[in-house]
Protein 1
Amino acid sequence: MENIIESNRGKKQLILNNFKFRIGSSNKGLIRWWCTTKNCTAKVYTDENNICINNTDTPQHNHGEYSCQALKKQVLNTACKRKAIENVSTRPKKIILTEIAQNSNSSDITINDINRIRKNIYENRRKIMPPNPTNIVDAHNALNSIDVKTKHKVKIFYWSMMKKKI
Ligand SMILES: [Zn+2]
């Protein structure tokens, strides 16, 4: 079964029969994927929906396949990172536990794995968040750039007023 995951560097990868492929060229909706192992020339083709074409044409690898366990951990990591960006206010712990609960075989997930995923969540969120302000002017500028509204769609102008008092 095909599965799209993310590499540690955030690049798209295709998993097929416990082998990993990185994206190559695409032409008229046909995408070529290369094996991620160095010096391996195995390649597969998929359509735009990442569905494998010519499945019977088994690619020839010059190395062994990845363990299911390692791939599952990478799938879990990718899912958590995606959820962390989609739901920026959900606690990392909740995201990780929800994803683990949905994983049919999660007994081999260790504390180290969870710590690594949590670290990845923080790093990913940091990329989409404005940097932490180092002085009061930056803090006000950051707040002014955010269109904060109350439940009743009234823009909060408290911070702008505060700024004038400084
Ligand atoms: Zn290979």
Protein 2
Amino acid sequence: MSSSGPVSPQSPPVDGGRRVVPAGPEGMIDRAVASFLGVAVGDALGATTEFMTPSEIREKHGVHDRITGGGWLRLKPGKVTDDTDMSLCIARAILEKGTFDLRAVAERFAAWLRSSPPDVGATCRKGIRDYMLKGQLVSPPNEWDAGNGALMRMAPAALFSLGDDALFERAVIGQAHLTHNHPLSDAACLCAGRMVHLAIRGEGRSRLRREADALVAAHPDFRFDPYPGEASGYVVHTLQTVFHFFFSTRSFEDCLVGVVNRGGDADTTGAIAGMIAGAYYGVAGIPDRWRKALDPAVRTEVEASGAHLLRISPAFGRPEAS
Ligand SMILES: [Mg+2]
């Protein structure tokens, strides 16, 4: 199904598992809220196990399944990291302008970098600095840019562009190339964004699987079945981990617990899994203890922004103003 076209009420698909799929526009807004909430929940949950190995996690936590903070950043419980921070930069820029304005996104990133956040990926830092120093909005292609930094923050660009595939590509790739310009990062961003769109529209697991399989067919590096077991910041490892646990579990909670217990770049794999699984399972699928454990200011903003971004999307009848 194309993600183009107007919103129309539809019957809840039968998909087994623990998924409830409310139909119509309100159901879609619920899943958009859950997608952005999923980014923050996955980030906060995974920050605890970032850079750990699965066996180190087992030894220290048994199964890590609570938002407790800590980790190498020594976060307070419920705090989030660059994944959510940068997503919020994009959301604020879109909502401020009412459209996707790349310079407005770059300005938000620059203000965020000037605030001296504790965790900035090297490629993100370089891209933002190049904007600050040279006004550069498109990083030149670079073989080292296949990290997951563009993928981890793209949820707002996907939510806002539902219903217009050209706008979707412009927004998702535009924000990506501010810092990451690599074909595998681009392909990962587009695939994940299409999966978010399909899930918001209420499509079932097999339809999302076709999207993941198409990515693997185009770029066999992404093959995730059987799961290779790497969960690093390389966008290929990141998406393999997310896909493996998304497609082999039947709830938001099981997907996220599986992902963050692989360690590695766990806050980012958690954020990306949360984005896709949130859009798929909806707010009711996100454990209340995780939602409540989030920093209240972050929770309030991601929930409001998720709904707002979808309401101004072309799918909700708003033509793109550019
Ligand atoms: Mg992070």
Protein 3
Amino acid sequence: MDFHLKTLELTNFMKFSHEVFDLSKNLNLIIGPNGGGKSSVLEALALSFQLKERGNSVTNYIRKGTKNASVILECEWLGKPLLIKSLFLQKGMGRKIKREVEYDGQKYEDTVANNFLAAHFKEQHNIVSFALQGKEKFISNSKAKNLQNLVDILQINFTKELSLVKDILKENYTKKETQLHQQNNIKGSLQTSSESLNNFKAALANTENALKNLKNPGFVLSDLENEILNTNTKLQNLKNVVAQNEKKKSEIIYWENEAAKTKNIITQKENELNRIPQNLEVVSTDDLEKESKEITANLQTLNISFREKISCISALNTKIDTENKRINLFKNGICPTCERALEESQKIEMQNSLQNLLDSKVQEENIKNELGLKIKENENLSVEKQKEINNIKIKNSEVAHSIQIREMLSKDIEEKKRYLESVEVKLNSLKSEIFENVDDLEMSTLNANLIALQEKKNLQMNFQNEKILKENEIKKTQQYINEFELKVKDFEQKEKEVEEIMSSIEAEINKWNRVTDIFTNIPKIHLKNVLDDIIKVCNSIVTDFGYKDLKIIQDEKGLEFILGNWPLGDVEEADITYEMCSTFEKSLINISFIYALAKMFRVPFICIDELDANSDDTNTNKLGDLVLEMLKTVPVVAVSHDSNLVAKMLQDAQSVSILKMEANRSNNV
Ligand SMILES: Nc1ncnc2c1ncn2[C@@H]1O[C@H](COP(=O)(O)OP(=O)(O)OP(=O)(O)O)[C@@H](O)[C@H]1O
Ligand SMILES: [Mg+2]
């Protein structure tokens, strides 16, 4: 079973003040002189599982002269640590064993702790057995007052263990699943990594090949660049000259245009000038004005005379009227006033006076008409003179205008001519500035050279770039390869690790599967079968020691052991009851019985006190073999006094711890 003893710490327990024993999970041999404390150690183990050995008094376990004792047993059960602390208190709390149990991270105290132990060990397991003290002791310890009782006790209810084991199994399966998952992941990663590695290796080979096949055009880049620079400079110079020429040419065209335009304007203006008559002169009107003035003066005088004549005529007319009236009054020759007839003379005189007046009036009117004619004549003359003056004045203003235009045109022409002159000067200078020695052939040669050089440069550059690219690619790919090699190695390592973990889990699962099998397949123990089986196992042992068999009979008193013997040689055989047996034979019966129980039931470990105390050399040796056999199924803690046996065990047992007790007597060495 999975029960490992680890350490036992005793404090003020029986003769021990303080002692820590390292225990083996296989065989523990306790050696030492009488009274050394060997049995006490076994008792501490038994007590840890609530099996009382030396009476019921707690005080018996406390070292004389001290008050409290403690036993701490550290072990492992079903793969988990189990710690059992037992405190022996002399005072208070009813003089009892105070218990503390820790299992699987859980802590139990006092009653709960005892219940835990009872539930898991005491009632269901027969844990510790003592060989020396004989069957009575064993039976009283295990409460097996009779075999039925014993079997009832041994009739282990495995449900708890089974569920525990199943839990462990489940846990292991979960672990296995996780590991499987991880393993699959790792396998996947390993495969992808390996594939990538191969791909990178292939890519590396390709690139290396490509690099080898790259052809170096063999140009010196710096030389090419210098040449390109030179050619470019030359070309640029030429281009500059051409550009300048082009600029000048366009300027010339502009100025030539300007000159033509100006010439045109000049011709136009000259034509206009020619159209203007040559000898233009302003005629004086002074004489004419003078004449005109004279005429006007005449006219004034005439007009005055004319108006005088008119007033003279009008005065005459008035006189004539007055005369006419007087004549009319005297028409009948009678004076109106005095009514006397007029004398002829008076009539003639009146006629003469009227006639004189009429004659003077005709005379005056003649003069007046003459004057009127003269006025008319002078007025016509004056108008004509004025017309003549006006005509001359109009002509004069036209001449003045023409003269003005002629002057303007001449001025313009002069200006344009000056401008034309300056344009021609500019044109001449521009024409003289044009470089006529631009060689088109040279330019195209330079251009062609440049293109050729550039091509060479490109070729060389391409080669170098390609080379660098390939080299970089190689470097990178190599890096990838290294990385992936590491990855692959890592994954392989991980795969191995997981495999190891898997196999350990698998082993664990197998182990626990076996345990489950055992638990689930253990048949209901039938009394007869159990006894038969026990007897079978016991017989296999006692026959080894030269006995015929061992019968075990069960009655109301308990178990009866009968050893088949040939005490009188091989003729007669005898059945020897337990009471009749020799000390060694009793020991043998006890050991074989315990061995049978341990083989058939779940016993965490076996204690055998005084294993070899009563055996001769031959039997001691055989007992050693028996213990070795026992160790295959259960850990053993045994007290031995035989140095040969100890030596044999040290040599043959898998792992042995020797617990050496010190003497506490002065005569013991
Ligand atoms: N409570 C106690 N306080 C002190 N000493 C005790 C106490 N109980 C027992 N002893 C002594 O402890 C010693 C060890 O006894 P134990 O039975 O363990 O010896 P042993 O090594 O098995 O000896 P043997 O070889 O005789 O079987 C004995 O001398 C015993 O008297
Ligand atoms: Mg003893």
